[in-house]
Fold this protein.
Amino acid sequence: MVALHTVIAIAAVIFLIIKLKFDPIVALVLGALYLGLASGIGLMETVSAITTGFGDIMADIGLLIGFGVLIGAMLNKVGAFEMMVQALVRAVPAKRLPYALAAVLATIAPSIYVDVQVVLAAPVARSSAKYLGKGGRPWLAGALGIGIFAGYVFVVPGLAAISIVGLLDLTMGTYLLFGIVIGPLTAMITIWLYHRMLIMGWWNEEKDEEDRDDNLTDVEPAAALAEGKRPSLLLAMSPILVPLLMIAFGAFAGLAGLDVPIINFIGDATVALFTGLLIAYGMARHYVKAEETADAFTAGLRTSGEILLVTGVGGSLGAVIKATGLADLLGDLFSAEQGMSVVLIILLAWFVAALMHLAIGSVSVAAITAAGILAPIVGSLPVAPVIVGLAIASGSLFALQVNSNFFWLYKSLLGLSTQGTLKTMTTVTAMGSLVSLPIVMAASLIPIG
C-alpha cells in the first residue's frame, strides 16, 4: 500500500498544479500530508518529516542557491552573461550549442554539485536560446538537464557515480572507463531525439513558459555599460570559473586521499560560491554605481527567496516518502538471483533504481539505496559488478519529477511552467534512462578481467 499511496501522492501533486492551478508550494505540502497520513506514519511524525525535510534541504543547498542567484544578479548587471553568450556563439555554431553545453556538463562538471551547476548554467542557457530560434529554450533546457545528470550518475567524480562505486566495491578506474563513454553518449543521443520531438510540436510557449525574459532576474544591465565600460571576458567569467575550479580541486584532492583542512575548506561549495559572489560584487561596484549594485542585489534576494521556499517544500515531500520505508519493500526482488539471465539482472537493477527515484525524488538517494540493496548479492551474480553499477546509474536517472527539490529549482531558474518542466527535465531524464539501458546491456558483452 505504501507504493500505491506514493503514486497517488505524486499524481495528486501534478494534478493540483497543472489542472487546478494550485501554487506548487500548497500542492507539495498537501501531497506530503496525504502520503504521511495514508501510509500510517502518524500525524506528528508526518509534520516532523515535512519540517525536517525542508530544513535538511536548506542546510545542504540553501546558501548555495542564495549565493549562486546573487552571483547571477551581479553578472547580469555588468553585462557578463551577454558577453559569455556572444563568445559561445562565436566558438560554436548555433545548432550545436545544446550539444556543446551538455558535453561540458557531462564530462567536465560532474565534480560540481548539481544544484550549483544549474544555478550557474541556467542563465547561459536562457540567454543563448534566442540564437536557436523557436524552441531554443526547451532544447537548451533539455540539454542542460540531461547533461548534468548523465555526468552525475555515470562520470566519476559525480556524487551518484562515486556512491555506486563505493557501495558495490567497484574499481573506480573501471567504472570511469565505461561511464566516460556511456554518460556523454547518452546525453548526445537524448538531445538529438528530444530535438526531433520539439520539431514535431512537443512545446507550447504559451503554456510551457512562465518567464519570457532571458535574464536570471529582473535586473537590467546598467546604462553605463553601453558606453564600453565592461570587464574583459576572462574577468566576467571569473565569478563562475573560480568557484568551479575551487570545488573541482577539492573533489580531486579527496579522490587522491588528501584529507587536509585547508584543502577541504577551499573545495567546500559554500566557500567557493561565496568567493565567486565577492568577485562578482566587487566587479559590479567597479563597473556600475553603488546604488545600481544595491538594486541588483535586492532583485537577486527576491528571486532567491522564491526559489528557496519552493525548493525546500519539494524536499519536504521527498522526506515524507523516504520515511514511509518504501525501500524495504524492494529488497526481495533479487532473492531468486540464481539462474537469472544477464539481461534480467540488468533490467531488475535498473527497475529498483528507477522505482526508488520515482518514489524518493533524489537521484543520489535512489542510486545509494539501490546499490545498498544489491551490494550483498552483487558478487554472486553472473554479470560483472560494474555492469550492475551502470544499470543502477541508468535507472536512477529515470524521470526526475515533482518530488525532487531540483525540479523546482530548475523550473524557477529556467522560467518554465510546471508543465514545461515536466516536458523538459522529466522527459529528458526519462529518455536518457531508457537510452542508456541498451548501452549498458551492450557493455555487458565486453569481457572484464
